[in-house]
## 1
Amino acid sequence: MAIIGKIRNRMGTLLVVLVGVAMLSFILGDFLSSAGFFFSGDRGLVAEMNGERIRIDYFDKLVKEKENYYMIINNQGTLDNSLRDQILDEVFNDLIYQNLTLKQYDRLGLRVGQAEFSDMLTGEFIHPIIKRYFTNPQTGQFDKNFVQNYVNNYILDEASISEDQLANWRTERLKWSQIENIVLRDRLSNKYNNLIAKAMYVTSKEVVAQNLENSMAVDVRYVAKNFMALPDSAVSVEPADLKAAYDKYKMRFRTDFASCAIKYAVFEVNPSPEDRLNLYNELFNLRSEFEQTTEDTLFVLQNSDARREPMYLRQNQLTALLDSTLWRGKDGTVVGPYADGDTFKLAKRIREKVSPDSVQFKAVLIATKMQDGKDRPGGKELADSVYNVIRSGAASLEEMALKFSDDQQTKKDSGSVGWVKETPPGQNLLYDSAFAAPIGQVLKLEFPAAIAIIRVDKKSEPTRKILVGFINREIVPGKATENAVYSKAGEFAATAKTKEDFEKAQKEGTVMVRDDFNVRDNSRLVAGLEDSRRLVRWAFESRVGDVSAIEKFGNKYVVAILTKKKSAGVPAFNEIEEDLRPLAIRDKKAQKFKEEFQSALSGSNTLDDVASKMQTSVLTASALNFSSYFVPGVGYEPAFLGAVSGAPKDKLYGPFRGNNGVYVIQVTSVTPGKAPEAQELPAKVREMSIMAGYRSGEAQEALKSYASVRDYRYKFY
């Protein structure tokens, strides 16, 4: 356990990049934010949470730190858009964790002590993440020694690491810091969720009551008047009615995010028949050159959109047409041009061979170049020494891999590369060498930046293959087609200035017009449009009624109009006035129907009399109870089920309003529920487990809502 104590003592150093710098930046960012150093007003505000105002300069700094981390651990110089979006969400959620979740844990006194942390690493209750990262690949079992050996390398001072190992050492130390951070956060989260789960309790009386409610059966007769019986146009709604509806229903529209609605006209740019014919002719003219060239790989890479090198393929790995033609043809046979989905292709048979499809081998990989391109001192000498030791039998390749290999992934697996499939010639020189090597022989292979000592252990059965090169050309719209579609979009943009103009085009079908009624401030896309974040940003920077410029997303030109906008929290009256109108209409219908029922009930002794006066019929439903979901002939009506469960038998009850109409009911039969015959404990445990399952998730959302988390990233990203 001494090693664990040492790890904890040095964690301040290990977490510099992921935690220490972030926390320091957070404190400084808070100070600068409160001092108003860089921004006035809200121009630089990217988020609000729990009273903290997060500025874009601080947020962007955290984003860049996280991007650098991903580039380091993945050995990449750039990041794709998908990963950038993921990083933006991670940084935002990290801030919520620091400003909200962690503070809540602190108020409750939740901690992870040193002894507890040590136990999660090498004790009795190993954390699942630690098990996943430190499982012995040979035994398939978690090995505590793997943890200690791994971490022992990354608690040293940086100055003690040799220059040739420093870059890899820093990467692995960052990985360990991330692992520890995840473990600690997960442990605190489990404690918090368990605290909530333990607070969920179901009494014996509740179990009995629920069983009685679920097992009772009520038969009912009823008269209904559906809201659809009266057209909306027959109801007059005044401004005062809308204001009353706002006061009554405004909390229904409360959200923790801003949103808007847009209509957008879509003009797709698709290849015309002329575009297809032109591309076909272009490939047809290229065919003779493809047949005659002897530089097949170069020719394919220069002329194909896909830029894939020729591949060896077995019979039946091609389409039926290619299979029959190329397998029977001579070397140099070319098929095409032929259509394959959205591409035209040429396929050429280059040559034939018989070889295995895959090999299994192990390797010791020793770097001979450093990251700056300079020769690694002693690299070749070390490789020669390792090779000679293995050849002499003084040590196995597996032992040498564990001790000397510079490839960390195969090093952990005693040099095992595993089964690998054949790649195109020249694409992977190590694999090419492995396929060419005899089984069981130890070989030393020199590459530009490393020396590999390999031993092939197994090969699959040799099969006949042919080397096939493909030239793929995507069928894309030509310039004339593109210009024609853009002109059509321009004509629409010049005349469509109002919501009504868009709706008219939508109704007439002259232009494809779509709706997205729920564009959130953190939305990445507008429905049906790829890479359309800038349209989201436009919507939130515009006013209702504004029309966008012509924008292109993928193969679509788009013209949009902003039709609605809602703020986070409880929206203002003018933001939801259109949404309130149907509710106000329904309220007035309900009042009118209730008055009609009251009049019908006056002087009526039976439900049939009420139905006659209402000019409708009596309906029936059976075996209903408080836990029923739908009412036959009515639909989803909680108010109806509540009334049925509590109304006196044989008496007229109502009128009352539901989701779909107004009702008067008469309970005709009640079969009482039965108390549970089985033991109460299993039922209590089941109910408490159900409650705990969704309460923990609700708690986090409740915290975010209470802390008024606001996301303004759409202003900047």
Note: Residues 1-41 have pLDDT under 50 and may be disordered.
## 2
Amino acid sequence: MMSAARETSALPAPPRPVEAVLRAPVAITAMGAVSAVGYGVEALWSALSSGKDGIRPVERFSTEVFSVHTAALVPSTQFTQGKKTAELALEFAIFAARGAADAAELSHRIQTGHVRPDRVAMVFGTSLATHPEGIFRLAELTADVISAHGPRLTISTACSSSANAVGLGRDLLLSGVADVVIAGGADALTEEIFAGFHNLGLLNPQKCAPFSSPPGTTLGEGAGFLVLERAENAQKQGKTIWGWVSGMGLSCDAYHATSPDASGSGVARAARAAVRDAGLTPLDINYVNAHGTGTEANDPAEWRGIVSVFGAASDKLTVSASKSIFGHGQGAAGVLEMIATLLAIQHNSVPQTLHHVGARPRCPVDPVAQSTPRPFQVTHALCNSSAFGGANALVVLDSPHFRSPDRAVVKRDVYICGVGAILPGVGDAKTFSSLPTGAKLSGPIGDQNLPKTLSGIDMRGFDPLSRYLTIAASEALRDSGLNMRGPLRDRTGLFGALVRISPASAHELQDSVNERGLLRLSAPAFTKVVLNASIGACARAFSLRGPTTTVTTGNGSGLTALALACDHLALRDDADVLCVAAADELDRDELPDQMCEAGVCIVLATPEALPKSEKYPVRLAGVGLAGPGQLALAVERAFCGSGFTIEEVAHLPALNSTVIAPSSHPLLNVLSAAVQIQQGKVKAALISNDSGSCSIAVLLSNT
């Protein structure tokens, strides 16, 4: 790639033309599921309608040493027998995704030319599922089975993963990246996960009884996927519409690694954002499918959040919790609960809450506490999901007959106003951007070089990934000149990108099991082995309470997070600043020259939030997203509407140095380009990346 030096101006750019973009509901045209109550959406409705749950004694592994012996496992059949537990999440995902795709006649539509495979995207949410090559491979393998050759994005925000994925799937449709999106998630219950939740004291010795007694949750597993399409496409092709996805809200509690903010303010922020995104008011919502884990801390916190949003109307608001039926499906929980909601809506009812024997304090008095669904006409439903790391994702679903309004929003410009990085032997981002060509960076950063505290932040309990992210974010926020106090923290979010959990935390957990057994595994280490744990730690360090997500697309995940963050800021009104951060940590079993440890953060801001500065910030002039092996298409999309032509902009060198950092390297490209644009060395730069999951292109300019 070549660099292009161009004359720059110190004057601010002239006002840009206003661009209106349509925000509209997208149709749900098919569903697929597997859960503790059986295989397929029919089995799920059969259980709902008959009042049966899927909670039973665990047979897959021994629970003899534990005080809890039940879970909501997918029924054992030839489908699961003989499979390693680590393989089950993929098996569940393929079953549910294939069921959804078949119900939507996707294969036939592809064969007849009504849908192009490269216009079919997949957004896959998962919490603790694994794959030897990285959890992003689950999305790639599942997408291959159903011929989804558009972008394959993996979202891992613990138990809110699949809800987050469904909301993102809508955004991909509205941005024109895809014509069909398969969105949902999958997870399987392992002995280690069971032990981790047990040691945290979160399991119910009986059956999960949300908002009732005894407190505690019942772990589950399974998979669920929705087929999403734009309204005009679904109607033109005569597809059955099960409902509409009309809004999503994200937030971060920035409070604790596992416990929710007791005030419920995180849930409330996400709920308000989701309702506004749908073009509705809280009074338009007449049903809430609650996260309802049944735990002592979660239920009251969620109810406080609901009351904060709905006020006096919350006393008459219909609320229920589906985890009482098929357990806590981990990363798949959100989408399974959406499917339960949609099935009940089709039958003019709402799902029930089983096992309720009387409300606990600070909980809804009547969460549809009965054995079968309650007759009720839903207009607009709010589906709640919360997670470890404080990641909340709430989605608004419309009844097929009560579609939320289309609305035009003004697309906001997005700027880079701060950058930060930590690398082996490199002092700061500016130093990195001026390294001589060919300089190679590899190996560990070295714990001896890291501060234990940072501007009052105690990082002694942080694993290396968390420290790298926090140090890079600190430098980037300082570079931005933003005053990160007061209300701005509620409107500043964090989009993270990682290819794997912290190897140090993974070893700490495994070492504790080897030394003390599952019953006494390290609970603190267990809380760190969800992919978003380090992102949550970074958000807590700076009290960033705005939208949060964690994305992984394999090599170059950081650039994917940047593109998603840019679109979020441009098209939504729930944030003014987003930090985009990625990090890489060397495993103790890897050779130092095989990988470079790194942490990098880019601060994005809308014009309203930009600090007053003599330097004009770098604008994200365009972003493009496409399927794997479609880099030219991603570049074309980045230039569309940017005001530039491909001939006017040359790629900057990938990096002045060689950096082998799977998550961070393309985001380091962006950092280097931004610094050079700010220094007046170049006018515009294109940074791109292609992985097995997707192709990304980002265009930066000084105007």
Note: The longest strand covers residues 26-35.
